[in-house]
Amino acid sequence: MTILTLADMALTVGWLSALTAGMISVYLLMKHCFPYFWKDLVFLLKVIRYGLKLELFKLTSNVCTVLDRFIQQAQRIPNKPFVICDGSVHTYSDVERRSNRLAAVFLESVNLRKGECVALLMSNEPDFLCVWFGLAKIGCSVAFLNTSIKSKSLLHCFSCCGAKTLIVGADLVESLDIILPTLLENNIQVWTMKSQSENVQVHTLLDKIDAACDQPVPPALHATTSLKSPTLYIFTSGTTGLPKAAVITHLQSLKAAAGFWAFGANEDDVVYIPLPLYHSAASLIGIGGTIQLGATCVLKKKFSASQFWDDCRKHDVTVFQYIGELCRYLCNQPKTKRDKVHKVRMGVGNGLRQDVWQKFQSRFGNIKMYEVYGSTEGNLCFMNHIGKIGSVGRSNFLYKLLFKYELVKYNMENDEPVKDQYGFCHLFSFAGETGLLLSKVSTISPFFGYAGSKQLTEKKLMRNVFSEGDAYFNTGDLMAEDPEGFIYFKDRVGDTFRWKGENAATTEVMETLGLVDFIQEVNVYGVEIPGHEGRAGMAAIIVRPGLKFDGKKLFEHVMRDLPPYARPLFIRLQEVMKMTSTFKQQKFQLVQSGFNPSTITAPLYVLDYQQNGYIPLTDIIYQSILAGERKL
């Protein structure tokens, strides 16, 4: 018996040793060949689980919207701080009751009804959320207006979404003085968050809120059975020039609200939101994500690099939202001994350059930075859940099974995709090559387009890309995917450039500049400036015969009619405007040549806020720009 027992034990030990060795071998093989397999699997299962929840909403026709989730949280954690802003704390219950009062005012005094669209022009403040939720509670869709856009663009926004009512913040009422008569002529009623108004045609809301009931309005007013119902309109610049109203459905809102959760945030986190609420990042991901978690957010009226870390320390911030430019500003601040004294563990955003990313983590500590790639209206999202520096997102075999996207060859000089003799696009055969990112439109990845003209929606689609009848969303971005499945942003093509965290439409800038009397023809594009995110606007101009370039007149024109991010920083005078073989203005060579006065023989000018004009761009000014000494 003893001999048999020892033999059995030896066999068992041998079997366990072999099993252990096999498991170690598999582990080492996976770590070497598939180092991100388990992280990818866990993250993707999380995403799929949330997706199945949304599918259940479709099957049962019982949609739990972001607003419904907020109401649930207000019942579950009524006394928990929801929004902290300018030192004041607003609990979930506070915002719930105030939005109920506003809903009652909108029904009784403003006379709004379910299904109407209302435009909202407000800065970052708690009442932005209360107005938004109050409108949503009575079944109105809300159009978020960019507080930087000028009169012509602002008026255009109303015609896009069909809004006949405008709610404006107290601090922005005066900005409407020029266009108020036109708004009233178009039968658009204007309400402001004030108790008294100097203009009898601008109605007040604050004096009516206190007397209103804070009990919930009937839930049937905001109930919906379809995830595809529009809930918001968020304006985005594109190739058509004037802002376009991207349709935001409940499906898109719910997907965005899961972002923080997907990256591992929880209800104990405090989220810092310094980005404008009229953008999808702050409203859909930031506020929506806070609500989804039942967390607390610190809302900043306007980003301040000097106050950022003090705010984070004061409020025990653990998660913050960013754009790449924001992180660069923080890195440029004077160093202090307290740079790593904070509780921030996670940043969520987009546009973070590799060099800034490395500097940021080296200086402020091992903060996990999660890049998210996607446009407001797009049907594709990449998420860099691994946190690899420089990458905007992560893909793999399983992801590609669910979300169909392709990188196609692109001719930069002709500004169009490369096609074969049959008119189909070319795919790349090697990883790492740069191509135009296209995302297939399907039931899993629908494209809801823009409000208003169907032509705007159609222009963002490419049809018959690889076969007859297929349709892809054209992101307008050049991307590359490495052998490991990491996605990298390379450049933006078409008629947009991104500056100061905003997308500017070259067509809108061209149309605005074209109104100046001495300009005969204009071509607008973006140029890179070392040490800055995105591209700065530059305009190549042909001056009308018999007239002269007037830098002060042009300055006054762009200051009046263009938002700061869309104003051309540089002007280049041209004799002729080159065209592509397809009769489009040639931008590629202009972009490549940049704004260096020592290599460009054509006269160059730079925007100068101190001299209130466009002044000659000299070598001294050029060098000061490269050194980061000149404010742009």
From TrEMBL:
Topological type in the membrane: Multi-pass membrane protein
Chain ranges of the AMP-binding enzyme C-terminal domain: 513-584
Keywords tagged on the record: Cell membrane, Fatty acid metabolism, Ligase, Lipid metabolism, Lipid transport, Membrane, Nucleotide-binding, Transmembrane, Transmembrane helix, Transport
BP GO terms, sorted: long-chain fatty acid import into cell
EC number from the UniProt entry: 6.2.1.3
Main location: membrane
Transmembrane segments: 12-30
Catalyzed reactions per annotation: a very long-chain fatty acid + ATP + CoA = a very long-chain fatty acyl-CoA + AMP + diphosphate; tetracosanoate + ATP + CoA = tetracosanoyl-CoA + AMP + diphosphate; a long-chain fatty acid + ATP + CoA = a long-chain fatty acyl-CoA + AMP + diphosphate
A GO CC term assigned to this protein in UniProt: plasma membrane
InterPro entries: AMP-bd_C, AMP-bd_C_sf, AMP-binding_CS, AMP-dep_synth/lig_dom, ANL_N_sf
Cell compartment(s), UniProt: Cell membrane
MF terms (GO), sorted A to Z: long-chain fatty acid transmembrane transporter activity; long-chain fatty acid-CoA ligase activity; nucleotide binding
Pfam families (alphabetical): AMP-binding (PF00501), AMP-binding_C (PF13193)
Top enzyme category: ligase
Domain AMP-dependent synthetase/ligase: 72-395
Protein family: Belongs to the ATP-dependent AMP-binding enzyme family.
Name by which UniProt lists this protein: long-chain-fatty-acid--CoA ligase
